[in-house]
Amino acid sequence: VQLQASGGGLVQAGGSLRLSCAASGRTFSSYVMGWFRQAPGKEREFVASITWNVDITYYADSVKGRFTISRDNAKNTVYLQMNSLKPGDTAVYYCAAGLDPRAVVAGGYDYWGRGTLVTVSS
Hints:
Blueprint: E1 2-6, E2 9-12, E3 17-24, E4 32-38, E5 45-50, E6 57-59, E7 67-72, E8 77-82, E9 91-98, E10 111-112, E11 116-121
Parallel strand pairs: 2-11
Antiparallel strand pairs: 1-3, 3-8, 4-5, 4-9, 5-6, 7-8, 9-10, 9-11
């Protein structure tokens, strides 16, 4: 599975962005998809994940109620809708694919895309 994230940019606090992650590979629908982020000087942290059948989603406490993860298996794409953005959300966002539906750490994912930068100004 190859992954390519897009949709990052500069937005003011309180604004919204939608990130997309396009996947190649015929087995995309078999994978759990996750979003992680890494701010300068910080470790990569879990943001959200969604199982292959879209029944189960997990969110970091810091983004609950503001971010929504979704996927379209027909389009081999996973999305992260980010609302009410805060300066603390500034980071490079990565999408990842794995097989463990409970994985909320980077080590639980097998495939990673290149990140997309999100900058939230105050």
